[in-house]
Amino acid sequence: MENKPGNFRWTVVTLLFFATTINYLDRQVIGLLKPSLESEFSWTETDYSRIVMAFATAYAIGLLLFGRVIDRIGTKLGYTISLIAWSFAAIAHAFATSTFGFGVARAALGLGESGNFPAAIKAVAEWFPKKERAFATGIFNSGANIGAVVAPVMVPWILGAYGWEEAFIITGAIGFIWLIFWIIYYEVPARQKRVTQAELAYIHSDNEVESVNAKPVQWGKLFGIRQTWAFVFGKMLTDPIWWFFLFWLPSYFSTTFNLDLKKPSLPLVIVYTATTIGSIGGGYLSSYLIRRGWGVFRARKTAMLLFAVAVVPIMAARYATDIWQAVALISLAAAAHQAWSANIYTTASDVFPKKALSSVIGIGGMAGSVGGILFPLLVGWLLDTYKAAGNLNGGYNLIFIICGSAYLIAWAIMHFFTPRMEMVNLDEPTESPKPEVVS
């Protein structure tokens, strides 16, 4: 009978989960405060879309930079720098006195928050074999949903009790508590004294052992690899949809169904709770299929196709006659997105060596943010145009059609670039990767 491996790797996932929770809590505060800030600063939908765009632009640049930096300086230090930067930026919103000031604070927040996913995905690759990575990613990625669940309860309460400035200060300060535990508990497996030899052997059961001093790959080389482009287009077409769910759903429920955002919002809590189930369940599904003997590639691709199809019903939101019908359709789509997200991140760790992983995540994340820059401009223009015509819901209807079709298009493009499962070998002079043998 085999010795059971230890469980310290799940402590690592717990740390990543809470970091991602804080990341999304800080990110979503402005969406919940939007009606109050619109009143105080006389924002139009276009003004707000530009503030969102400032975040997305900085986030895109930051992903590109942080991905490279984390491959060079390591996960522990890279994550530390990222969290300190975004926590100070979140607090800085409280001192903004103009629309421009909010744009600057959002840009600083985007730059800092961009380190979260490159660091977290690299940590998962360092600590988990492939058969567990999607599940581990689904768990930590569900922190995004928990942050989104906590925010609609926490932020309105702080707003009512203290004011919008305190909402930014209190939520922004939470990250420094997490930082204490990160510094104490995180280290790569080879240097972590709390890890048993059995667990260390299990972590490296894919024969992907790399030196802790492995040199990072030349960044430009990654753009010549088709697996990079599969990840790029998959992120570019789907990340903006999630950003729409984060930044515009509160306003959608408020304007369409008269939801009072100054009180804890049950519809938003339900939507983001559903995404937690999607994130963990989506990661579990492909990991389960692999344990049942499916090839890694087949399991990931089948799961992602299922999740892409599950987003399509959101197109029917235009026919919703009450808020709970809309909640049901949007909950399904948002849950499917997070299931998709857990798997698309893991596809990168399936085909790229650990020494290049943060860079690839950063490149793909940047592409997602480019979509996040362009999509808010379209959303703001559509909503302002239809609002001026007295038909704001017409703008949302078009947006939901875009949301419903984006994932199937992304899946088809990813399949075009990677029709077969191939592990990238960056140590060879040729750029032709070798097929991965999946048992």
TrEMBL record:
Any GO CC annotation of this UniProt entry = membrane
List where the protein spans the membrane. Answer: 51-70, 77-96, 167-186, 229-249, 269-290, 302-320, 357-383, 395-417
Q: What is this protein called?
A: MFS transporter
InterPro entries membership: MFS (IPR011701), MFS_dom (IPR020846), MFS_Na/Anion_cotransporter (IPR050382), MFS_trans_sf (IPR036259), Sugar_P_transporter (IPR000849)
Where is it located?
A: Membrane
Answer yes or no on keyword Repeat: no
Topology class, membrane: Multi-pass membrane protein
Q: What keywords would UniProt list here?
A: Membrane, Transmembrane, Transmembrane helix
Which residues does the UniProt record annotate as the domain Major facilitator superfamily (MFS) profile? 12-422
State the organism's lineage: Bacteria, Pseudomonadati, Bacteroidota, Cytophagia, Cytophagales
Q: Which organism is it from?
A: Spirosoma aureum
